[in-house]
Amino acid sequence: MKLEKISDQIKVWSKLPAPEYLVEGLFIENSINIIAAPSNAGKTLIATELYLALGTGGTFFGRKVKHSTVVYFDLELQHSLYFLRLRKQYKSDLPDTMYYEESRVDVMDDSILNACADAIIEAGIKVMIVDSYSQWTVGLEENSNSHHAIVLQQLIKLQNRGLTLIFLNHTRKGPVSQNPIEMLRGGSVIGSGASTILFLEKQTDTYRLRQIKDRLLPTEEWLDVFLRFQENELGELKPIMLEDTKINNTLSAQIISHLETAPYSSGNDISKAVSAQRATVSQELKKLVEVGAIKQEPQEPRKDKE
After folding, report:
1. Alpha helices (runs of H) in the chain, residue ranges in sequence order
2. Whole-model pTM?
3. What is the pLDDT of residue 171?
């Protein structure tokens, strides 16, 4: 083994090009990424919005998007159903830079994987959106770290050929843990291999989309927004960010995080947990109820008469 000085390695690293973003502050080129959510929480809506933004050169929740040739692997819906969903979100003609595929690729078979990569690269495709990871890995034991470690190595082969992979991932059933990565299908193994992970939660009629992992950016720059889907003037179903509730390490985020782990907390309990005045917490709770982020304000315990 030949050991090298860190100063010599830094000289080499400094000459390498900086990572380029596909979506500003979210997804970098040549990376593996995840959009995670429970079943029926809106993953396909979000993924389709990303698919359209990449293919048409639009924006994604206010972030700049690099116009890219992209393929959507739809392994969850019949193509006719997905087409109907797509037309609800975008009514104009679609560009030739957008591809659609509904056949599953056996990622454990090197010859099939290489043939898939060859076809994708020959078409000039740079980005793969796969719906979903569980359908992509049908037949594998969900909780087997060794199996998913092999899958991750196969995905890295695609990444090394210049592709960016974005997987939709179902989370396991149950309350959201403080570390949602533990809830991913494929668990910590697939989570460890991802550069960026977005987590989507449906809260009554409002959604919350938040970044729970990023290898490059500090946490204060992570995406964390509330949104609703509403029709625009063209009749397209589009995500509308609720700017007045946009949060990023704010009191609202702390309150929601606390309620995820202790849903029956009183207002006083929340005040103590987030170290804020009871009146301030009450104002935040009212705002969260108004936008549908929580169903109702926590009730204070009744005091028995003496």
Report:
1. 6-13, 43-56, 79-89, 110-122, 133-136, 145-160, 187-193, 251-261, 267-274, 278-290
2. 0.78
3. 83
